[in-house]
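Reopening this one. Same input as before:
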Amino acid sequence: MEEKELVIRHSILLITRDVVEQSLAKIQLENLLLRQLYVGASRIALNEVIQDIQEVRKELGKRGIRVYENENLNGSMRVKYTSESQQNDLTLNRDEVKSMVSLNIQNYIGDVKEKFEKATAW
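Same output, byte for byte:
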C-alpha cells in the first residue's frame, strides 16, 4: 500500500470508528426487540475497526509516517502528516469521505453477517 493510501485509510478508519460508536450508543438507548442482537453486531464491527486501526498505525510506524492532524474544512477533510522528515498534506472532499466510510461500514457489516452465519450453521 502506498504512503498516501495508508494515510487515507487511517483517517477513514478513525471516522468509521466514530460512526460505529455513535450508532452503538443510539442503539443502546432504543427499546428495540432485537436490541441485544444489534448491540452485539455493532460491538463485533467496532472491534474489527479498532483492530484495523491498530494494524494501520503499526504499518505507519514501520514506515516512519506520523499523521498529526485531521481537520474538517468547508466540506473537505484535510490530513497533515510527516514522512521522511517532510511535512505533507492531502485533502479529500466530503463526498469522497462519506463514500469511503459507507463502504467500510458495509464491509464490516458483511464480516459480522458471515460470523453470525458460521456461528448459527447447522
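So the earlier flakiness isn't reproducible anymore. For the record, The longest helix spans residues 35-62.
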